[in-house]
Specification:
Layout: H1 3-15, H2 19-23, E1 30-33, E2 36-41, E3 57-61, H3 63-74
Antiparallel strand pairs: 1-2, 2-3
Helix pairs in contact: 1-3
């Protein structure tokens, strides 16, 4: 399987997020905090972006999802994208 597809499926299964959110992941969305690693998806990138009271979506990263994200952070594009078309 292509690396993008493999990692996308792993993140889909471990996080329950949508493909559009996964493939829009950027290094600026990932933080290591006192209680672990977090992926904060900006409201504008979620399906609820048009809802007045919607907020950014915070997703904890652990297990295989964290391994995938950490590997992709090491190889992120210049603009911070974690999923590149060249993968």
């Amino acid at each position: 399987m292509h690396a993008n597809g493999r990692d996308g499926v792993i993140l889909y299964l471990w996080t329950g997020t949508r493909g559009a959110e996964i493939f829009g992941m950027n290094s600026s969305h990932i933080t290591k905090e006192d209680d672990g690693w977090w992926w904060t998806i900006p409201k504008e990138l979620t399906k609820n972006r048009r809802e007045k009271h919607a907020v950014d979506m915070r997703v904890p990263l652990f297990g295989r999802a964290l391994q995938v994200v950490q590997h992709r952070l090491e190889n992120a594009a210049q603009d911070g994208r974690l999923f590149n078309t060249q993968d």
